[in-house]
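Deliverable D5.2: sample structural annotation.
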Amino acid sequence: MHDLITIGWRERLSLPDLGLALKAKIDTGARTSALHVSSLEEFERDGRKWLRFAVDTTRGKSALRQCEALALDQRDVTDSGGHTTARWFIRSTISIARQHFDAEINLTDRGTMLFPMLLGRSALCGRFVVDPERSYMHARRLRAPAGDAA
């Protein structure tokens, strides 16, 4: 067994494929990761389904970042309140604690939540352990990668 990296209950991370840097809640109770998006739109490109959406990384609605990603599929997700909704999933690279890996992320409205992203246990498994007493243990300030998100 290899050594796992310890992270706190909240961390900064980036999604370089989307050109995003944001704060995330680390949630071992959630199976999948979730990203808060608005104005989700489906479109076709080269015969494949893509998704166009806006992400607010500052919670101030003043810094909406337009993103596009290839759609993986649409699946039912049950939230912590027991409500099931169909959500679109994408695959993106996640960079956190100097680790870079691909993970599935569902796109949803997290507007009432404190963090725009939730990092679930499927992304954490085999990579990290979570110390619930700690927060922001890695990367004091992440910057979104240069260039357009596509």
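Annotation notes: The domain at 5-131 is CATH 2.40.70.10 (Cathepsin D, subunit A; domain 1). DSSP finds one helix and twelve strands in the chain.
The annotation will be released with the project's public dataset once the embargo ends.
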